[in-house]
Design a protein that fits this description.
heterodimer; A: 462 residues; Potassium Channel Kv1.1, Chain A; four-stranded antiparallel sheet; 43% strand; B: Methylamine Dehydrogenase, Chain H; 2 domains; 42% strand; globular
Chain lengths: 462, 469
C-alpha cells in the first residue's frame, strides 16, 4: 500500500529534511541524506536538489521497482521483496536512476566471497562447439571467456552476454583490464591485443621485437594496479622478454628479463608462462617450465620492477612445479609438483634457502617417475588456495594455532589443511582447465565442456 | 523555475485501467505513435484530474506502460504469452514498440542458439519455406498447405493450395506467394488474405512441341518482376520474367535444351539489385562427381553477363574440385561456393568477375580440422556471414573486423579474412542432414531432412543460466 494514496500530500517546508517524490502515481518520502548516498551524478541527487520547488517531483517510472531501489539506498542491501523481480529489471532501473554501483556492491561484492561456503550453483553455456581456453574475471564478478576464436563476456549479474570474434585462432592468455576491455594473446599469434569487448574491435596492438625484428608471441599476461606485464617469446623461439607497460596509457615502461639464447642454454630459453604480481612485496613472480628428456625443469623468479633485477630465483629440478601461485595474504608461495601431484608451500620469509619447499603431502611421491600433477592448476584468492586435480578442487586453508612451536630456523610451523570442494554430486567430472575468481564467485572451466561453472555462496536478495 | 502549477500539472495524465490507477506523462503515452489509442487519450482538450477509465486488464497494461517508459519489456511480461501481449499491444496501438522490444538482437552466427522449432499441426515435413518478408516471419509449405508465422512466430494462418507438394516458394507481395512444384506444371500465385489462387503462369511455345507441362524449379523476386525457372519433361528449360503488377508473362531468357549438365535448369535464382542481373546456378551430382554452372543474366537483354562451368576447361586452380553449392551475398555483392571434394569455401567478388575469380578461404581452427567433402552441403549468405550446413552440422564464416594479418598464399588461398566457427553443438547436428538454410529478420531458419518443422536460430544478449542447485 503506497503511503498517502488518495490523500493530499502532507505539508512540508523546504527547510525540512524530508523529501517527497511521486513515482508513477505513488508517493514516497525519504530524507535528503538518503538521496545523497546515491552519488552526485544520480537522478536521486538531482531530485534532492530540486526539492526547493513547491511541487512534488514526478518520475515517470514503475513505483514497485523504485521502492526496491529506495530500500537499497536506505540500507545498502536489497530487500527480500526484490526476489519478485528479475535482476535484469533492477539493473536496468538502477541504470536509469544512476545507482548501479550500489546495486553491484550489495549483490556481487568481493568481500562476500566465502571460500568455505561455495557451491556449484549455475552453469553458463557457451554457443558453438569450442570449450573455454581462458577465463578472465574482474573484481566485481563480470567474466570474459575465450573459446576458440571468440570471446564471450558476461556482465556482473551473469545475465547479459555478448560475443565478439577475434583475430586469433585460439586465445591462450587473457586478462581483464576493465569490464569491457581485455588484453589477449596467443602462442601462435604475433603481438598482444587490447580488445574492446563491447564493440569488438582491437583498440591497440602491443608488439615486442628482438634484435632480428621477428614477430613475437604472447606467453603470459599479468597486471599490477599500475602496470601490465607481458611475457613475449620471439617467433623463432630464440629470445624472450617480459615487457612492462603502463596500464592506463599502455606505453612501454621498461623491459625486464630479456634473454637471447645462444647455444644450448636451456634455462634461459624458457619463457615465463605465468606472471603474477605480489602486491605486499611489490615483486613480480614469473615462472616457466620446460619438459625435456630428463624430466620437467623450470624456474621461478621474483623481479623488482623498478631496478629490473631478480630478487630471488629458484631453479626447479626435482618434482618441478606444474603450476605455482603466491598468496599475498598468507605470504606463502604454493606449487603443485608435476611428478607427485602434491601441494608444496614455501614461506616467502624464508626465501633464499637451498630448498625452500615444504611438502604438504607424501614427499616420497616426488621422486617417482609418474606425472600425477600434469595439468593441475593452483590459484590463491583471499586467504585460501585452490588447487585443481583432475576434476576435483582442493581448498587449502591455514589453521590458526594458539600454541605455536618454534622450529629451528625461528619461524613457526604453520598448519595448512585441505578440503575437497563441493557436494558429492559435484565432485569428479572432466579435468579442470581454468580457475578464476571475481565478486563473490569462483569460475571453473573443464576440458571439452562448452560452458563455465559458477561456484558461489547464497546471496542476499537473490 | 516553473510557474507554480495548478493542483494538477498539464503534462501528466491519470489512467484507471480495470480499477487500478496509473499516472504517467503525456510524452510517455505519445511514444506509441500518433495512431495509437493512447495517443488519442493524451489529446483530451483540458487537463482533467479525474482518471481516464479503460476497461482492460491492469496487469498487462502495467507491462506495456513499462515498455513505453523504458523501451524494454520487464520480467513481469513473462507471465503473459506472446499472443496476449501482441493482442493487447494492438488494442492500445503500441505494437511497433512491442515489436522492437521483443525482436531478437542482431543475428551473429558465432553466438546463436536453437531456440525453437516451428511445427505445423499436420503434415509437418516442410517441402519449402521462405523468410522473404525479412521481419523474422516465415512461410512454410508442407503437404500442399502453406502456413504463415508472423514476426513473433505466432501461427497466423494456413491455406490449402491445389498442389500435392510445393517445392519452391517465394514471397511476392506481403500477402502473396509465388509457388511452384516439381510434380505439377506452372507457377501459381496465392493470396493469403483471401486464401485463393490469384494467378497462374505457364510456359508454352506453340512453335516448339517439346515445351509442355513445364514445371518450376526456382523462383526469385525483384521490385518489378518475378523470375521463375521452368523445365519440361525432356529437360528443355528457360527463365520466365513475370510482371508483378499484372502477374502476366513478360519475357523469357536463357532458354536451353538441357542435354548436358551445363545447360540444365537453374535450381537457384537470385536477383541482384545492385547490378540488375539475375544469378542462376545449377548443380548435379552424377557418377563422376559434381558438375554445374553459375550464370549471370541481364534480364532486359536476356544476354549472359558472366558464366563459369565446373568441372571447367582446366584453367581453374581447383580442377577436379567442382562446387557442391553456391550462395549469393546480395548485400556485399559476393558469390560463395563450397568445393565438393575438399569442402573448402571460396568467394568471388561480383563486381570484378573474371575467368577464375575465386579466393579460397582457409581457417586453422583446430576444432574444425575434420572437414568432410562437400556432400550434403548447403550455403546461405545472410547479414554479411556465410552459413554452411555440412551434413547435420551448421557452421558460420564471419569476416574478421579490419584484419591486418591476411596471409595470401599461392593458388588463391587466403587465411585470416574469414573465421570459421560452429554455430551448433554436436547434439544439434544429430537431428538430421540440413537441406535448406534461410535468414529472415534477425533469425536463421534451418530445415532438416526427415525432421518435422523448421528450426529457428537466434542470438541473444541474455545468458541462459542453468541452475545446478
Amino acid at each position: 500500500m503506497p503511503p498517502f494514496e488518495g490523500s493530499a500530500p502532507p505539508t512540508y517546508n523546504s527547510e525540512s529534511n524530508i523529501v517527497t517524490i511521486d513515482v508513477g502515481g505513488q508517493l514516497f518520502q525519504t530524507t535528503k541524506q538518503t538521496l545523497t548516498l546515491a552519488g552526485p551524478n544520480s537522478l536521486f541527487a538531482r531530485i534532492s536538489d530540486s526539492v526547493a520547488q513547491t511541487s512534488v517531483p514526478f518520475v515517470d517510472r514503475d513505483p514497485d521497482l523504485f521502492s526496491v531501489l529506495l530500500s537499497l539506498l536506505r540500507t545498502g542491501n536489497l530487500p527480500s521483496k526484490a526476489r519478485a523481480f528479475d535482476v535484469q529489471d533492477l539493473i536496468f532501473e538502477s541504470q536509469f536512476y544512476g545507482v548501479e554501483p550500489i546495486l553491484v556492491n550489495s549483490v556481487s561484492n568481493p568481500s562476500q566471497f566465502e571460500a568455505f561456503n561455495l557451491e556449484k550453483s549455475t552453469l553458463l553455456p557457451l554457443n558453438g562447439r569450442d570449450s573455454p581456453s581462458v577465463i578472465a574475471s574482474t573484481p566485481f564478478g563480470s567474466v570474459h571467456v575465450a573459446h576458440g576464436s571468440k570471446i564471450t563476456s558476461f556482465d556482473w549479474s551473469l545475465r547479459k552476454k555478448s560475443t565478439i570474434l577475434t583475430q586469433f585462432t585460439a586465445v591462450d592468455s587473457m586478462l581483464a583490464i576493465s569490464p569491457s576491455v581485455a588484453a589477449a594473446g596467443a602462442t601462435d599469434f604475433s603481438g598482444l591485443q587490447i580488445i574492446d569487448l563491447e564493440n569488438g574491435f582491437v583498440k591497440q596492438s602491443l608488439n615486442w621485437e628482438n634484435v632480428t625484428k621477428s614477430s613475437s608471441t604472447v606467453q603470459a599476461i599479468g597486471a599490477s594496479p599500475e602496470c601490465l606485464f607481458v611475457s613475449f617469446e620471439s617467433g623463432r623461439r630464440n629470445s624472450n622478454s617480459i615487457m612492462v607497460y603502463d596500464l592506463q596509457s599502455l606505453s612501454p615502461v621498461t623491459e625486464i628479463s630479456h634473454c637471447e639464447i645462444y647455444g644450448a642454454e636451456l634455462n634461459s630459453a624458457i619463457p615465463s608462462t605465468k606472471l603474477s604480481w605480489v602486491h605486499g612485496r611489490s615483486l613480480l613472480m614469473a615462472s616457466g617450465s620446460h619438459s625435456g628428456p630428463s624430466g620437467v625443469s623450470g624456474t621461478i623468479k621474483f623481479w623488482d620492477i623498478r631496478s629490473g633485477n631478480v630478487v630471488w630465483e629458484l631453479k626447479e629440478k626435482v618434482d618441478c612445479f606444474s603450476d605455482v601461485t603466491v598468496s599475498d595474504n598468507l605470504s606463502v608461495m604454493f606449487k603443485v609438483g608435476v611428478n607427485s601431484g602434491e601441494v608444496y608451500l614455501s614461506d616467502l620469509r624464508t626465501l633464499g634457502d637451498e630448498n625452500p619447499w615444504i611438502c604438504l603431502g607424501d614427499k616420497r611421491k616426488g621422486i617417482n617417475g609418474k606425472k600425477e600433477g600434469v595439468g593441475c592448476k593452483i590459484e590463491s584468492h583471499g586467504n585460501q588456495v585452490f588447487c585443481s586435480k583432475g576434476g576435483d578442487i582442493q581448498l587449502w586453508s591455514e589453521v590458526a594455532m594458539s600454541s605455536r612451536k618454534s622450529s629451528e630456523d625461528g619461524l613457526e610451523d604453520r598448519v595448512f589443511r585441505k578440503n575437497l570442494m563441493g557436494k558429492v554430486k559435484d565432485m569428479g567430472g572432466s579435468k579442470i582447465t581454468n580457475l578464476a575468481f571475481g565478486g563473490n564467485k569462483m569460475f571453473v572451466a573443464r576440458k571439452d565442456q562448452q560452458s563455465v561453472e559458477v561456484w558461489q555462496s547464497s546471496v542476499r536478495g537473490f | 523555475m516553473d510557474e507554480p502549477t495548478s493542483h494538477f500539472p498539464s503534462d501528466r495524465i491519470k489512467l484507471n485501467v480495470g480499477g487500478k490507477l496509473f499516472e504517467t506523462t503525456i510524452s510517455t503515452l505519445r511514444s506509441g505513435g500518433p495512431d495509437s489509442l493512447l495517443f488519442a487519450l493524451s489529446n483530451r482538450p483540458n487537463p482533467d484530474p479525474n482518471p481516464v477509465f479503460i476497461d482492460r486488464d491492469p496487469e498487462i497494461f502495467s507491462v506495456l506502460l513499462s515498455l513505453l517508459r523504458s523501451n524494454r519489456l520487464p520480467s513481469t511480461a513473462r507471465r503473459f504469452s506472446n499472443h496476449e501481449l501482441a493482442d493487447e499491444a494492438l488494442y492500445y496501438g503500441v505494437e511497433s514498440d512491442l515489436k522492437s522490444a521483443m525482436s531478437p538482437p542482431p543475428l551473429s552466427g558465432i553466438d546463436a542458439s536453437h531456440i525453437s522449432t516451428i511445427r505445423p499441426a499436420s503434415e509437418g515435413f516442410a517441402s519449402a519455406f521462405t523468410a522473404g518478408a525479412n521481419d523474422g516471419s516465415v512461410w512454410i509449405a508442407h503437404g500442399g498447405q502453406i502456413s504463415s508465422y508472423d514476426w513473433n512466430l505466432i501461427h497466423a494462418g494456413t491455406i490449402r493450395t491445389h498442389f500435392e507438394d510445393v517445392t519452391s516458394i517465394c514471397q511476392v507481395y506481403s500477402e502473396v506467394a509465388a509457388l511452384g512444384s516439381d510434380s505439377e506444371a506452372g507457377l501459381h500465385f496465392y493470396d493469403f488474405s483471401g486464401g485463393r489462387n490469384v494467378g497462374s503462369v505457364h510456359w508454352r511455345d506453340p512453335s516448339d512441341p517439346r515445351i509442355f507441362k513445364a514445371r518450376v524449379s526456382a523462383i526469385a523476386d525483384s521490385p518489378s518482376s518475378v523470375f521463375a525457372s521452368f523445365y519440361c519433361p525432356h529437360k528443355e528449360n528457360s527463365v520466365l520474367v513475370i510482371d508483378k503488377s499484372t502477374l502476366q508473362l513478360q519475357s523469357e531468357f536463357g532458354r536451353q535444351n538441357g542435354s548436358s549438365a551445363k545447360n540444365l535448369v537453374p535450381d537457384k535464382l537470385t536477383w541482384l539489385p545492385e547490378r540488375g542481373v539475375v544469378v542462376g546456378s545449377s548443380v548435379t551430382c552424377g557418377a563422376f562427381g559434381f558438375s554445374g554452372y553459375i550464370r549471370l543474366w541481364d534480364p532486359r537483354s536476356g544476354g549472359v553477363v558472366w558464366e563459369t562451368n565446373e568441372p571447367g576447361s582446366g584453367r581453374s586452380v581447383r580442377f577436379g574440385d567442382p562446387f557442391a553449392d553456391v550462395g549469393v551475398d546480395v548485400e556485399e555483392s559476393m558469390l560463395f561456393k563450397v568445393c565438393s571434394k575438399s569442402g573448402d569455401l571460396a568467394m568471388a567478388d561480383l563486381r570484378s568477375l573474371k575467368e577464375d575469380p575465386w579466393i579460397y578461404l582457409q581457417d586453422n581452427n583446430p576444432s574444425l580440422k575434420t572437414t568432410k567433402g562437400g556432400n550434403n552441403t548447403v550455403v546461405h549468405c545472410y547479414k554479411k556471414q556465410v552459413f554452411v550446413g555440412r551434413g547435420g552440422g551448421l557452421e558460420v564464416w564471419s569476416r574478421v573486423a579490419n584484419s591486418r594479418t591476411v596471409v595470401e598464399k599461392e593458388n588463391g588461398v587466403c587465411e585470416g579474412l574469414y573465421r570459421r566457427n560452429f554455430v551448433d553443438k554436436v547434439e544439434d547436428s544429430e537431428r538430421g542432414v540440413i537441406v535448406k538454410i534461410e535468414g529472415g529478420g534477425e533469425r536463421l531458419f534451418v530445415c532438416r531432412e526427415n525432421a518435422e518443422g523448421i528450426e529457428v536460430w537466434e542470438s541473444s544478449n541474455s545468458s541462459t543460466v542453468v541452475s545446478l542447485l
